[in-house]
Structures are given as structure tokens and as C-alpha cells.
Amino acid sequence: MTLADERLAEALPGGTLYAVGGRVRDEIREASGDERSEVKDYDYVVTGVPLDELRTRLERIGRVDLVGASFSVLKVTLDGTTVDVALPRRERSTGTAHRDFVVEGAPDVPLEDDLGRRDFRMNAMARAIPSGTLVDPFGGESDVRARRIDIIDDRAFEEDPLRMLRAAQFAARFEYALTPRALAAMRASALYADTVSGERIADELTKLLTLSARPSVGLEILRETGVLAVLAPELVEGVGVEQNQWHAYDVWHHALASVDATPRGDLVLRLAALLHDVGKPRTKRGPHFYRHEQIGAEMALAMLRRLRFSNGIAETTARLVQSHMYAADPELSDAALRRSIRRIGVLNLERQFALRRADIAGSGLPKRDDSNERFEERVREEVARKPAFSIADLAVGGSDVIDAMIRGGAASEGFRGDARVGDALRELFEQVTERPERNERQTLLALLDERFKRRLA
Q1: Which has the closest alpha carbon to 439: 397, 405, 402, 408?
Q2: Is the predicted pLDDT of residue 97 greater than 80, yes or no?
Q3: I need a surface site. Which of 164, 348, 407, 437 has the fewest CB within 10 A?
Q4: How far apart are CA 363 and CA 374, in angstroms?
Q5: SS (HEC) of 303-339
Q6: What is the pLDDT of residue 444?
Q7: Rounded to whole angstroms, how far apart are CA atoms 408 and 123?
């Protein structure tokens, strides 16, 4: 038992406290030899205790906040840890539509009714505290041990379409198989996916992509059941689109292989791997996909914004997609190498390299040579020398340009700048790119003086 288990059990009548939710599932998974999961949420159900009495008892051991009056949910903070404690709940239909129901919480609702309103049988278990007795009315333990995901009710996805995304991410994270019944129910309810908010979709996709060793498992479930065509039709366009001789797979299966080849945990990198060739179907001309990286970046940005990913995630992903066709020529001149680094962006380099490695691994063909590795080594060596990779890295700024313009007679006293200031800084930046040793304040000031005297001549 956890410390929270002990504190709650001491405060409540015997036989009333149950741990519920993913924690119970994961305890059985771990006992079956699966990878240990970090418990992030501690959820409890208390039976037979009226809400007012429950709150009074819990206030003796910690801070209590009522967060769901109609659902009878209390947040209890014990020694810095916050847990959810609820009365058992049941759902009551109020109509024929998939969202026409209300949830009611009451101390006399049977625990089995509370468990029966959950999504999957593996999540519909409870463990009595402190006895440890498992309450499993729907066969969730057998599902966990058989590594399968099944629904409790045939209308599970119709009642809450978000469950379809949860089914896919659980299948990918745990490497479990959906039962034929669950798959059939997903197909029948796929069109309801468009009623789920973008934020909730982004949250489930984030879990699928960051917590799974092979996100392709869940992504293929979403595609095969028709859910992906509703949520991200851009991705489905790649199914059956054949590529050139450098790829063994069509665009869709190449994307799956590429995302699986990225390390777990980096959401942006995995999104970029999934989306790096999303523009290919719309740019295919015979064996060629001209400008697919540019079109793909625009599509990726629009899709991720539609699904309510943050602007930072959407924009960084799109930039990686746009730059993924960079030329990895280890024989580039130093200046050309610096321009390549500028285009990619210093902060994006390692992700861009990782995306290239995933792209190659996802081709399904043997790696051809070590040019990428040699190019990466040269890039890292150049970055370590810390030359100027942006105008902001110059040893002079806009005010220095303005002063030089006034000194040279190109502007009068009080001048505050115009387009010529930016032009001058860009010209200096190009000179510094060719010759990094010029990025020294006195040298650049002399170049500015020369520039504006020359322009006046």
C-alpha cells in the first residue's frame, strides 16, 4: 500500500475504500512481467458513505476540495500528494444521441455499476484497501494477462468517441491487441471522432507518440478503423502511393517505419517523422515529388494547429519537415556548410539529423554509405567553433549601422532607420559567413564606413 492508501483507510470505515483506474491495471501488468508503469494518478471510490460525511472524515487528514458536485468528486491533498476520491457513479441515458446521458454519484450506487461505466474491461477493476481483494466483474484481469483490449459495452465508442484514441494509444503503449469486437465497434463509430475536441485529440496522440516503443501499432489501428481519415485525412492520402527505387514501402508505411525508428519521448521528432513526407501524394509526378518538403511543411503546420498542438510544437515540426531534404554533402566548402547550418537552424540540428536517420531506416532498404555521418561530424565541428549563424550573432547591430550612415552622410542627425539598415546587416552577415574572422567589431565598423562612403561616391 502507498502512504495515501494508509491515510485514507485509517480515516474511512472498513470495507468502503477501493483503488480504481489505471493503477489497478498496471499492478496486474507488472505482476505479469510487463514494463513497470509510473503511476501518475491515484483514484479512489468510497462506497456507502454520504458525501457530507466523506468530506468531514477526509478533512481530518488533509485539504479537501469539491471539484465535481454533481459527480461527487473530492480532491484530497495528503502530505503534498493530491488524489481523487469519489462516490460510486452510474450513467443514465436521457436520449438517443451518443452524448445524451447524465452521470450521478451516490453512496448506494453498487461498485459494479461504477466500474461498468468505464471504457475497457482492463480499466474496469478495483482493489479493496487495505485487504487487497480484486473486484473484477467484467474479466479485466484475464484481458491484461492475455494482452488484449476489449470494451465493456458495444456502444462504448459511440458514447465517448475519445475512447477510440485511447484504445489506439493503449494498444501501442502496451503492445496489446484489440479484440474483433472492439475493432468492429471502432469502425461503426469512426465518424463520431469529429466530435472530439482538438485539445483532447492532441493529448491522446501525444501519449501514443511519446510513450510507445512502436507508435505504428496505434496509428495503424486508427487508419484501419477509419478514425484517422476523420481526424487527419492528410495522412491517409499516403496509403498506396508508391515511391521511387530508394523506398521499399508506400508513403504511409514509410511514415510508420520512420516514426518507429525515432527514440521514444521526443514528441516533435516523432511528429516530424510521421509528417515528413505528408506532401508527397499531392506533389507526385511519376517517380518524383517536387517540392514535397515545402508543401508538406504547410500541411503539417495546418494539421497540427487544427488539432490544437501548441504553436511551438507545430512550427518546429513544420520547420523540420521543410528542411528534411537538406544536402548532406561532407565535401561542402566551409561557407556552404555554414549556410546549410543557417537554413536548418542551430537549435534544430540534432533533431534534423535524427529525422534523417529515421527516414533512412524507414526506407526499408540497406543504408548506402556514411556520408550523413561524415556531414554531421563536420557540422558539429563547425558549430563548436561558434561562428555567426544569424544576424544577431554579429559583433555590430542596427544602431551601429545608423551611426555609420550618419557619419557617411547617408542619413541626417536624428535618423532612426529604414530598410537600408537591414540590407547592410545582411551584407555583413554574408561577408562573415564567407570569412568568420571578420566578425570583430572594429572590422565590421570599418566595412560599414566603407559601404556608406562608397554608396555616396
Answers
A1: 397
A2: no
A3: 437
A4: 20
A5: HHHHCCCCHHHHHHHHHHHHHCCCCCCCCCCHHHHHH
A6: 96
A7: 76
The strand pairing partners of 20, in sequence order, are: 43, 126
Pairing of strands 43-46, 81-86: parallel
In contact, 324 and 293? CB cutoff 8 Å = yes
What whole-number distance in Å separates Cα of residue 339 and Cα of residue 252? 32
Per-residue confidence (pLDDT) for residue 96, from 0 to 100? 45
Count of H helices and E strands in the chain? 23, 13
Q: What is the pLDDT of residue 94?
A: 53
Quick check: 177 and 147 in contact, CB under 8 A?
yes
349 CB burial (10 A radius; 0-12, 13-18, 19+)? middle
Cell of 187: 469502425
The correct answer on CATH 1.10.110.30 for the domain covering 147-231 is yes
Q: List pLDDT tens digits, range 393-404.
A: 999 999 999 999
Task: Say how many CA atoms lie within 13 Å of 162 toward its Cβ.
Answer: 13
Strands, DSSP E only, in 170-295?
177-178, 284-285, 288-289
Which residue ranges make up each domain of the chain?
Answer: 3-139, 147-231, 240-385, 391-456
Residue 168: φ, ψ to 5° = -65, -45
Work out whether strand 89-93 and strand 101-105 pair parallel, antiparallel, or are unpaired: antiparallel
Do you know the residue count of the chain? 457
Residue 289 pairs in a beta bridge with 284
This prediction's pTM: 0.87
d(Cα 295, Cα 278) in Å, to the nearest integer? 8
CB 289 within 8 A of CB 325: no
C-alpha cell at 322: 521543410
* 240-385 CATH pick, 1.10.3210, 1.20.272, 3.30.70, 1.10.3470: 1.10.3210
* For residue 457, pLDDT beyond 60: no
